[in-house]
UniProtKB/TrEMBL annotation:
Gene3D superfamilies: Extracellular Endonuclease, subunit A (3.40.570.10). Signal peptide: none annotated. It comes from the Eukaryota. This is Endonuclease. It comes from Lucilia cuprina. One of its GO terms (cellular component) is mitochondrial inner membrane. One of its GO terms (biological process) is apoptotic DNA fragmentation. Its EC number is 3.1.30.-. Belongs to the DNA/RNA non-specific endonuclease family.
């Protein structure tokens, strides 16, 4: 199958090629080298197809065709692994701030190509928020892609998301007869809920960067697959993209009743990896319009709508082109007045518009 479409001087990667390719694709245009985030490029664009710093091939778009043909490039057996780069920006993140991406040497310079940022509470192993750019969906996640614990998560902590470990932890906190987590949980289970989502990226190398444990929160499966997914898909819809997105989890922790009738704070391992009660997503679309979503992460609460803590979210109507289920089971979601939310609740993200 050909790996390019020809449309009026535009070279376009097709999904078949992208599905199986593992090059990091860099666009060189107007003297600038940057990640290729969309599958179409204009005539005259130079693309660097990178397996690693010692295996870089140059491809150009000429009259609607890639030269040389992408099919001639071969595989990428010694491909790079995504890395974490610790940054220092206490105005943005009072915890540990990491850039996630790839470090390479190209055109006689060293580069770090960032795919997203993570603010991470190292002591509690808690993802606080991530910042990324969303683009329209191109390909699904590669089959069998596994999460990378990096040097941050020991194997004991990494295993905290396993069903067996979660069941044991619920019994430890709530008592042996607890009713919230069966030993073979189905819909009640917790997902490794991505903050920066897989489908915001068009290639396997970019998708791989999202499979970092610092990029996930304990999220009930129906919520992750429900309203949270709806928000992700809405953010990367063509009417919004490219969009700047910040996804985060507040400090409030899920509490459940133990077998003696007392509310207990829920963590996946000892007193780390807290299960967040409230999450949020801020979307700044290409027209500069900001939308703020606030979501409830508790499928066991029967009260609807759930009570918003304090004054964090003066409620406004959600966009008419997103359909969010009004149910705690799917993740009850509010839309908040953006200026109030940014100014009073997450003032560190005031720089969001300008820098990220």
């Amino acid at each position: 199958m050909d790996s390019v479409s020809e449309i009026n001087g535009i070279c376009e990667y097709n999904t078949h090629f992208l599905k199986y390719d593992w090059h990091l694709m860099l666009k060189y245009e107007n003297g600038t080298l940057e990640l290729l985030r969309e599958p179409a490029v204009q005539d005259g664009t130079i693309i660097y197809m990178v397996c690693n710093s010692d295996d870089i091939k140059e491809v150009s778009c000429e009259n609607g065709e890639f030269n040389p043909q992408l099919s001639s490039l071969g595989g990428c057996p010694n491909r790079m692994k995504p890395q974490l780069k610790l940054e220092h920006d206490k105005k943005l993140c009072t915890y540990n701030l990491y850039r996630v991406g790839y470090k390479i040497h190209c055109k006689d310079n060293d580069y770090f190509f960032e795919t997203y940022k993570v603010c991470f509470d190292y002591d509690r192993k808690r993802a606080v928020f991530t910042i990324n750019e969303a683009y329209p969906f191109v390909i699904p996640r590669p089959y069998g892609m596994m999460f990378d614990p990096d040097e941050i998560f020991t194997m004991k902590i990494f295993s905290a998301y396993n069903k067996r470990d979660i069941y044991a932890q619920f019994r430890r906190i709530l008592g042996d007869e607890q009713r919230f987590m069966p030993d073979n949980a189905g819909e009640e289970r917790f997902d490794r809920g991505h903050l920066t989502p897989v489908a915001d990226y068009m290639s396997n190398t970019l998708i791989a960067t999202t499979f970092k444990m610092i990029n996930v929160i304990p999220q009930f499966h129906p919520i992750n697959d429900g309203n949270w997914k709806q928000m992700e898909e809405w953010a990367r819809s063509p009417i919004n993209t490219p969009a700047k997105v910040c996804s985060g989890a507040f400090h409030w922790v899920l509490h459940l009743l133990d077998t003696d009738g007392y509310l207990r704070a829920m963590y996946l391992r000892d007193d780390i990896i807290p299960i967040p009660l409230w999450t949020y997503k801020i979307v700044l679309n290409r027209n500069g319009i900001r939308t703020v979503f606030l979501q409830y992460n508790n499928i066991h609460d029967k009260q609807m709508p759930p009570k918003i803590p304090g004054e964090i979210c003066p409620e406004v109507a959600c966009p008419s082109n997103i359909h969010l289920a009004k149910s705690n089971y799917w993740g009850y979601t509010f839309c908040c007045e953006p200026e109030h939310f940014i100014t009073n609740i997450v003032p560190n993200l005031k720089v969001f518009d300008a820098k990220y």
